Amino acid sequence: MVAASTLKTFSVTLRVWRQAGPAATGAFVDYPAKDISPDMSFLEMLDVVNDELTAQGIEPIAFAHDCREGICGTCSCTINGKPHGPGKGVATCQTYMRSFSDGDTIVVEPFRARAFPVVKDLVVNRAAFDKIQQSGGFITARAGSAPDANALPIPKGDADLAMDAAQCIGCGACVAACKNASAMLFVSAKVGHLGLLPQGQAERDRRVLAMVNTMDTLGFGSCTNQYECSAACPKLISHDFIARMNRDYLTASLRSAFKVAPANTGGGAA
Amino acid sequence: MATLDSKIPSGPLAEKWRKHKTEIKLVNPANKRKYEVIVVGAGLAGSSAASSLADLGYKVKCFVFHDSPRRAHSIAAQGGINAAKNYQNDGDSVHRLFYDTLKGGDYRAREANVHRLAEVSVNIIDQCVAQGVPFAREYGGLLANRSFGGAQVSRTFYARGQTGQQLLLGAYSALSRMVGAGAVDLHTNSEMLDLVVVGGQAKGVIIRNLVTGEITRHSADAVILATGGYGNVFNLSTYARGSNTTAIWRAYKRGACMANPCYTQIHPTCIPVSGEYQSKLTLMSESLRNDGRIWAPKKAGDTRAPAAIPESERDYYLERLYPSFGNLAPRDIASRAAKRICDEGRGVGSTGLGVYLDFGDAINRLGEPAVRERYGNLFDIYHEITAESAYKAPMRIYPAVHYTMGGLWVDYNLMSNIPGLFVLGEANFSDHGANRLGASALMQGLADGYFVIPYTIGDYLAGQKPGSRPAADAPEFQQAEADVRGQTTRFLATKGNQPVSHFHKKLGKIMWDRCGMARTKAGLEAALQEIPALREEFNASVNVPGSADTLNQSLEKAGRVADFLDLGELMCRDALTREESCGGHFREEHQFPDGECKRDDEKFGHVAAWEYQGEGKTPVRNTEALNYEFTKMSLRNYK
Prior knowledge:
By secondary structure, chain A is α+β, with helices and mostly antiparallel strands.
């Protein structure tokens, strides 16, 4: 099922961040990448380079990847200073070598942010994103307790806008692109998605307060409205969601400050 | 010989599940927290199971090899999820979904399982909407539907071309809620490397932390595997690069039977291979066949650009061969048709291994904006990979490995033949027979996790004394850990001259050539020589650099490819023994003159469940008869 590509191959130099472990000191190391086909994906090029390094007795470059179709959010290289590389609206795995030219030196780094410590080489730890989700990024809906799906019509515009936000793949490019390493785009996408839907209203205030507070404690920076995040986002999620979240956060803060505390009697206690 | 009792409840088909739910044992709420359940995998099946069981009050530990549960490959499913809601008023019903799925599977699935799947399909949509899954909607605010292969109703729910992503994020949010509440103990970057069986029951797992290399033992009252399919045995597939068979294969080596491993789904519409370096084949969703028309030139060797080929010289072969289903013929049928066209020399593109999927008519009929709204993200993916615009010229597509219907054998309760070991989602074999219909994988994964296992696991746990699970330093755990450490040491000590990828590519080529879309006795027999030889070469000359106590991606791959080598051999053995054609399993010796599958219900109307006998020994082939009480096993006809 394999046939030779008819396109001309070329060669580049990779300047790759090598770091043996979280506590080790890292450095850039140059490796040649020869006979590269323009139809190769960036990660396929790394596969080829890694096989060559293995043959030479050099430990291959560790890089995160999985689905290789831009949806799982695992891949996370900063290429020539841009998270996910030169393309607009694509993840690292959807970056193709046709974006580069013969003789180029390509600088490859991990996503850099204090909240994303380097694990090894190009791999970073993004567990902070999971922690934010765990603090409130959900609608409580126990299996078996849901009403009929069409019982609650949702205006198409709201559903579409929620979907725009829900497309976030959790890769962290927004954080890596931000000079403050802010996670506002990531958090606002989840807050926006769930807050736009009628099902999400019951926990709306609690959600935004909890997620923002968790984000702040995990070492992400603040937003100073430069929107590098949405420019680097592989799903082109709009920074409008940040404004929406700020409004939600303010409203929720005010409401929680002035809310009369409910009587703590329960009533269903058996 | 393993005993394979399917435990299908008695009674009328439509009553079985309801009746079973009222008859199986319950665990009292105060006792639930005394039971610990291990869930391996956090895709649709794993996340939904882990969150639902935790919500019930069980103590749950969830292991996932990804760095986050949200990365599991369910996320990549594009097209949609089936449910018998009949929101379109077009005549759908639970019975029709049941029948379509059973027929689509070429009558090689269990009636009772498939009926249950169709029944709970409606609850899945309710559950997902309640969680906030942003399904596509009509202007009136109600849910929208589209059509998928093998059905004549519109019952597929979708979220643009990212339905799997949205459903997984829904399940992930449910799981996150339980992790945040302390009800699920989540372990990421954690790969299961062995199953621990104590006293004949599954009681734990051995885990390697992929970042630190630490190996740990975990005991539990029951173990659930929801670790997905094994299509990467072909190396090139639409699977994620990390998808593997290791969890289910190690369970197989501990005594769990592997059912119908040769049933592989080859998806008809993927982007063709472009070169030797290729790591991944990208799917173009089946939903495209709602509006796209598949064709090839009538003349062999026609190298004209598609626009230069007049209508009269195009062969819309699916519409010609299967007029009533047309471009929405089931996947196995559409794939084989594409292969036949290319075998006749009518394939397109530089490799000759491709056919056209043409949106010209749809764009003329609906306008480009409407087509963009429906399929925009898929057209974008196509453009990124090929640098071609499908708005201007037809896509070139070719079949690729996409799903495995085979998997660990389970009974009606989703328990394997090892008591206490449950298997959910693609990792089991139960619902899709020999061919899965589009938009049914998401349905099955979530059905198993949200609506089946929460009931059926209680039936097993009620028979286990609370607190009776073995300690994690029992001899069986120590032995399993020693086995895992031994394998790791062996890989690192081999210091051969070929990277792991070399063997994976070679295995993939053998599997594709011999055990792919068309299989023959001679080819499979040859593969049964070639694979053991390749395994020997692998053992002697694999090069795994680095050490065991750090992130070592070569080491991870070595373990997975070693298991693929074993599994590939078993798949070929299964395909060789099954002397018939059914669904995705096509034996050239068994076909009708028009090239359709010729089943042999008398001899092969059964499930083949293979039982491991030890290293180098031929496994035993057990069978479970498929007794069709309510449906007639008939000839599949999509004409």
